[in-house]
Specification:
- The longest helix is centred in the C-terminal third of the chain and has 17 residues.
- The protein contains two helices and four strands.
- The chain starts with 29 loop residues before the first strand and ends in a 24-residue tail after the last helix.
- By secondary structure, it is α+β, with helices and mostly antiparallel strands.
- 16% of the residues lie in helices and 17% in strands.
- The protein has a four-stranded antiparallel β-sheet.
- It is extended and about 70 Å long.
Length: 132
Amino acid sequence: MTRSATPYASRDAHQVNVAGSTSIAEPVAGFYRCRLRSGSVIGGVRLWFGQPADPVTGELLDRSLRWQAEFDGEPVEFDRVWPTCAGSPISETEYRALVARREWAKQHAPGSAYAQPGKRIDLLSTSNPMPF
C-alpha cells in the first residue's frame, strides 16, 4: 500500500456527522445545565440572542444583537458555557428550580458551593447543604 503524495494541509476538510450528536457550530437558544469548573455544583444556563442589558439598571442597551448567557440567573461570558452545555438541554421549569436553589443557598448557606458558582464542592464540609 502506498501513501498519498498530497500534503495533509492541502487535503479537503469535510464535516463528519454522527447520529445523535449535537452540532456546536451554531448556538441554540434555550435552557441547559453545566458546571462552571470541574468539581463544582451543576447550575442552570439560559442562552438567548438579543440586545445586551445594562448591568446596573437592567435596561436594554442600544447595541448590536449578540449571544448572551446567564448561569443560575446571573450574567456570565457566553464562551464560558457554550459549547460545554450543548449536550445537556433542560426545561425552563428545571432551570428555575436550579436558580431558586442558588437563591436559597445565598441566603441560608452563603459559604457553600451552591451559593458561589465555580467553587469546588466539598461534600465533607458542614457549610454545604445536603445535595438531595
